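**Protein of interest**
===
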Amino acid sequence: MVKILENNEIDFNSIELSDLIDIQMLQKFQDDFAIAFNCASVTINKDGNPITKPSSYTKYCSKFVQSTSRGQNKCAESHRKMGEEAVRLGKPYIGKCSSGLIDFAVPIMIQGNLVATILGGQVLTEAPNEGSCINIANELGTDEKEMVNALNEVDIINMRNIQSAANVLFLVINTMVKDGYTKIKLDSLAKKLANTFMQTSATIEELSASALNITGEQENL
């Protein structure tokens, strides 16, 4: 919920993504984006909690990596670091997650302030490393063979395509959010002007009343 400070400025810490964009529309956009660019995607808030439902998650991640608390914690930590790096850069950040897949973090920002982050990827840029996958499976306590099979189903995508997908997402979503922020600013300005008008009207009424009193006193004199 957007809060307006005493100086009529917007409190950036209070802004949530739902204040700037319709979440159902974002979900549809995210789902279509994931299908079009052949990658997974989910939107999280500043605290790392999901805002949208996951789109096109791989079996490797949903059924194996994130099926254990240890895997979930490793994913959360990996996403946190990638999100922080994206905010520092002020643009999408691409890197390898703790489970060996390529992910990207797209910051959603308003005037340098982070509002939310879109995480995506769950792809590979080269042939999967089955040995590393077996080590991860042993660490998480999941079935080695099934996890390797799931890894082999992960799409292999050119890094340039991943960068393009992240950049497109960054430009589109931040433009949409900027429009939402502009509307909030206009609403805030309208309220500020309305308050100023009311204060001016009250002052004029007081002056009018004073003028009438003076006129009455003059007549008495």
